[in-house]
Amino acid sequence: MTPDSASNGDEIASENRTPDEMDLEELREEIETIDQEIVELIAQRTYVADTIAAVKDEKDLPTTDEKQEEQVMERAGQNAEQFDVDANLVKAIFRLLIELNKVEQRENR
């Protein structure tokens, strides 16, 4: 992540400091905050996926939509490149999220 892509001033402040200007505890606290934000975003994504599943069920649509999955994976790769993150890693994470959502959708049908 670059400083101009950070979501708040605290992140920018820590990113502009050199490692010797930050202590280990500060860095670990920052990781803890980021981890919490990641889990919050996964929860939001899961809620929306559950809502999509309800709509699919109501309209008697199949659980799997390969075209949509391909689009999600393409976006994941593009976003990874934008933030200079390993695209294979990001795609693996999204593949896992998609598979978990599909399992949950099948179990709730």
From TrEMBL:
Residues 18-109 form the Chorismate mutase domain. Signal peptide: none annotated. Keywords: Isomerase. Residues 1-22, 59-79 are annotated as: Disordered. GO terms for biological process: chorismate metabolic process; salicylic acid biosynthetic process. GO terms for molecular function: chorismate mutase activity. Residues 59-73 have a biased composition (Basic and acidic residues). It comes from the Archaea. This is Chorismate mutase, type II. It comes from Natrialba aegyptia DSM 13077. The lineage of its organism: Archaea, Methanobacteriati, Methanobacteriota, Stenosarchaea group, Halobacteria.
